[in-house]
């Protein structure tokens, strides 16, 4: 039998390349690359339109990569971009011969007459690059999948991370020069100055924001406390301040409470109606009106709550990436760290190793998405057995010292009132009722401090200590006090009687004494 020889030649009658059985040509658009580069050298408007869309790696032909690098360098130096300057820049870099000489540059400029449709052409080039990147990633996934020693959960996480990078247009990040970084830093400082000193996400607590300049991108913030101190209440207050007042998207992952319970707490905080009243539905007419009016801002807030139980760090990262790409979240809150599982290959380790893996992955997630991640944490019982003020220490962090190591900020919540301590341990011996301390015990990029906050227990919320009671809050407290036995046993007038029954009537625009919602 005659042996069939494999086909190795190309057709000379057509310009198309004949693909062999297993030979595939990567997606490309050489003709469009030539057109775009030619347009960049003859029209400055074209440079302005696509310089932030393209980068050297998106070009398939290496010579085109060198030419675009020269154009990009000229643009950054605020130099004119044309045939002569690009040629001079390539000579300076010693790459003029690699691109085919000046004759090839002239050929590129002759292929076009203007920069019309250059953005459309540039996006096609980018699409071809993304296709090539997906092919490369897919091949890596296939190769790893055949490896029996690869953990399937690690493989899934790695695959999703690579695909997320494609979505964000960050296939491969190279080292940046000091010059570029200085320019970026100066631009960021100017933006901070315009935001009155806040370079990060505002927490809504003035003194905390002054200390931290807002929660910074890529930071891992740990907020730790003993049970009952108000960890969830504090972070919910922050989430409300950020999402409602500043319209910044926030993701809240709750492993302890259901989403309905959390939103009920937020409704209580927003409407100044106690959680007990909301649970029983025992509301007066004006309180129903108060409820309907006050929740409108909360309904429109970009707040996303996930109450999946036993959430693994793998699931968290996957969900966070999706929320980032779909809704552009700027802050993640996890309540709380010890309820998470490591998942994947970490299941067999001890609990300390598992917590270490979780904290490392939370820090990695913050850096990957370039947003702050706030994780709540429990403290050990050593606080309870210690005498004195019972202020938490870094050594009280439960189950792992890696939390302290990975975190950029470690803070504690301390309420002396919880321990039946009536006075602060300061010179004034001021009362502790309705107050808490936000203790910043570690701050990688700033100072340490003990900041006092106001704690409103029946509403489950924190406020800045210098915030005065709103009329609605006063009214809410009066309604609660009206049912207090003190007014009944001592025959004292109730607050509603003392201040007039008009507070429970419909509000009138002509009555200056009416209290607004």
Please explain how this structure is put together.
This protein folds into two domains: 30-150, DNAb Helicase, Chain A (Orthogonal Bundle); 198-467, Rossmann fold. The protein is built from 20 helices and nine strands. It has a nine-stranded mixed beta sheet, sandwiched between helices. It is elongated and about 85 Å long. It has helices spanning 30-42, 44-50, 62-76, 83-93, 101-110, 118-146, 152-168, 178-194, 206-212, 231-245, 259-271, 275-280, 285-300, 313-327, 351-369, 382-385, 402-406, 471-482, 485-489, 495-499, and strands at 220-225, 250-254, 303-306, 331-335, 373-378, 409-414, 435-443, 449-456, 461-464. It is 47% helix and 10% strand. Strand 7 (435-443) and strand 8 (449-456) form a beta hairpin. The model is unreliable at 1-20, 468-478 and 480-517 (pLDDT under 50). Residues 194-469 form the SF4 helicase domain.
Shape by Cα distribution: elongated
Q: Give me the side-by-side strand order of the main sheet.
A: 3-2-4-5-1-6-7-8-9
**What's the main sheet like?**
9 strands, mixed
The fraction of residues in strands falls at 5-15%
Radius of gyration: 31 Å
Q: For the record, what is the CATH homologous superfamily label of the largest domain?
A: P-loop containing nucleotide triphosphate hydrolases
EC number: 5.6.2.3
Biased composition (Acidic residues): 507-517
Pfam families: DnaB, DnaB_C
GO molecular function: 5'-3' DNA helicase activity; ATP binding; ATP hydrolysis activity; DNA binding
């Amino acid at each position: 039998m005659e042996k069939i020889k494999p086909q190795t030649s190309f057709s000379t009658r057509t310009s198309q390349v004949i693909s062999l059985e297993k030979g595939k040509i990567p997606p490309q658009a050489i003709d469009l690359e030539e057109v775009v580069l030619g347009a960049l050298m003859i029209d400055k408007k074209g440079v302005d339109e696509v310089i932030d869309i393209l980068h050297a790696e998106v070009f398939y032909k290496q010579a085109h990569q060198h030419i675009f690098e020269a154009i990009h360098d000229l643009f950054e130096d605020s130099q004119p971009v044309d045939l002569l300057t690009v040629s001079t820049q390539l000579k300076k870099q010693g790459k003029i011969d690699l691109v085919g000489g000046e004759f090839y540059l002239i050929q590129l400029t002759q292929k076009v007459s203007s920069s019309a449709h250059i953005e459309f052409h540039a996006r096609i080039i980018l699409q071809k690059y993304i296709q090539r990147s997906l092919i490369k990633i897919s091949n890596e996934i296939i190769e790893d999948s055949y490896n029996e020693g690869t953990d399937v959960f690690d493989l899934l996480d790695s695959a999703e991370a690579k695909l997320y990078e494609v979505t964000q247009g960050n296939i491969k990040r190279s080292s940046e020069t000091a010059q570029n970084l200085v320019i970026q830093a100066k631009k960021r400082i100017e933006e901070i100055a315009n935001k009155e000193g806040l370079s990060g996400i505002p927490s809504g607590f003035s003194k905390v924001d002054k200390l931290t300049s807002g929660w910074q991108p890529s930071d891992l913030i740990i907020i730790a406390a003993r049970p009952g101190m108000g960890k969830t209440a504090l972070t919910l207050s922050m989430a409300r301040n950020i999402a409602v007042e500043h319209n910044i998207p926030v993701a809240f992952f709750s492993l302890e409470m259901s989403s309905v319970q959390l939103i009920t707490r937020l409704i209580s905080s927003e409407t100044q109606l106690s959680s007990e009243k909301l649970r029983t539905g025992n509301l007066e007419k004006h309180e129903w009106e108060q409820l309907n009016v006050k929740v409108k801002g909360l309904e429109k807030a970009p707040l996303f709550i996930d109450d999946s139980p036993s959430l693994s760090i793998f699931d968290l990262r996957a969900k966070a990436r999706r929320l980032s790409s779909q809704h552009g979240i700027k802050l993640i809150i996890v309540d709380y760290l010890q309820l998470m599982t490591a998942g994947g290959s970490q299941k067999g380790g001890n609990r300390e190793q598992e917590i270490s893996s979780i904290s490392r992955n939370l820090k990695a997630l913050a850096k990957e998405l370039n947003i702050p991640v706030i994780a709540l944490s429990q403290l050990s019982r050593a606080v309870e057995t210690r005498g004195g003020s019972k202020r938490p220490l870094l050594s009280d962090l439960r189950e792992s010292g890696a939390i302290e190591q990975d975190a950029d900020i470690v803070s504690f919540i301390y309420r002396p009132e919880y321990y039946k301590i009536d006075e602060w341990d300061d010179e004034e011996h001021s009362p502790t009722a309705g107050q808490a301390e936000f203790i910043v015990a570690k701050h990688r990029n700033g100072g340490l401090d003990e900041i006092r906050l106001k704690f409103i227990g029946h509403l489950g919320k924190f406020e800045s200590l210098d915030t005065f009671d709103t009329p609605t809050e006063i009214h809410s407290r009066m309604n609660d006090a009206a049912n207090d036995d003190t007014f009944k046993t001592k025959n004292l007038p109730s607050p509603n009687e003392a201040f007039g029954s008009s507070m429970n009537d419909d509000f009138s625009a002509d009555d200056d004494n009416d209290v607004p919602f």
